[in-house]
Automatic annotation (TrEMBL):
Domain G5: 232-312
Protein known as: Ubiquitin-like domain-containing protein
Family annotation (CDD domains): 3D_containing_proteins
InterPro entries: 3D_dom, 3D_YorM, DUF348, G5_dom, Resuscitation_pf_RpfB, RlpA-like_sf
Keywords, alphabetical: Membrane, Signal, Transmembrane, Transmembrane helix
Annotated TM spans: 40-60
Domain of life: Bacteria
Cell membrane among keywords: no
Amino acid sequence: MARTEIAAEKEKGETMFNQNAKQFVENAKRFLCKTPLKRLTALLVMVVITVSSVITVMAATRDVNLTYNGETYTLQTTSGGTQDILNQAKAQYPEIEVGPMDDISRSEDETAINLTVKSAYDATVLADGAGHTVLAYYGEDVEDVLEKAGVTLGVNDVVEPAKNEKVTDDAEITVTRRYEVSITADGETRELLAPSNTVAQTLEDQGISLGSDDLVSVNLEERVCDGMQIVVSRVTYQDVTVTEEIPYETTTNKDANLDKGKTIVEVEGQVGSQSVEKRQKFIDGQLAEETVLSTTVLKEPVTKVVTVGAKPKNGIAIVNGDGTLTDHNGNTIKYSKVVSGRSSAYTGGGYTSTGKPAAVGLVAVNPKIIPYGTRMYIASPDGKTVYGYAIAADTGGGVKSGRIVADLYYDTYNECINFGVRNMNLYILE
């Protein structure tokens, strides 16, 4: 049987005993009224009963040690019930207030009943934008309440009151998260522990104000986090007016009566000038872009007029200097490279090394330098001696030995004699 049940049974028995004793005394009084001897006997019985009742009551009284919120109170009770003891304690010590949520523990030994009461407190934890209300008890500290609320502190976080402070009723505990953040602004970088605020609030807390055109590397409404790097770029504008040149254009006209390759400047070109109003954008003092606001022409440019010859020089090849040449018929052709060197002439018919009948336009080359089938245009460096269009189709000892770069086929012996040996350019055609 539990201690509380034993105490209740004991209390019930004592009450019944006292009631029976009282009834017995009443009966004894009535008896004594009848005979003297009987009255004496009854008197003795009453004395015995009274003494026994007193002894019984004294035996039922117990010491109580009550610890209330760290303070110890002592009292005596004839009741073993916890609530009766608490009610008696309240009547004896008005400062003791026991609520329904308080923590009550009890133990008993042979000498006393020991009660411990810890008052229940409502504690509110404000963390991460939310509030958590938990039940705390006398003697618990802030760290205990945080654990009950499921709030874990980071190494840089701050809590108010401090973790080791004891809580009281209606305690409010605030947790401020702090993060390692770097801010670069106005040529300075600062490292700091910033609370869990927006980027805008963090900049304001650091005394960094933003202009309407300034740039920030992260969204101002974003909340700071560990390792965040915030870069503030100052943006300024400046309006300037400058004078700029207006380049002239060139118009080219062809003249069929002017030999090809000749150029005549009819009108010299002249640059113009204009006044330009610009808006310049600077980021951290460096020019980032310019926007033209208005332009005023101060002097119109003069167009250059050029006449170029279009009349072909028959019988002469002209190198144009841009990867093209004009052949002896006045046609412009492109070439990929030029092979220059001494060339000779040969005749006599027969077949070439590629199996084709020998003919004008089929020339002998070193196929390791100029592969068979390569198309060429052959003329002297000054263009006055023209062999014309040719195909690499034959070879011979002279070209293989490197003494000559090409052996040019002619139909007659006299043509070969007239050509002799001379320097020629082999223009490799595209």
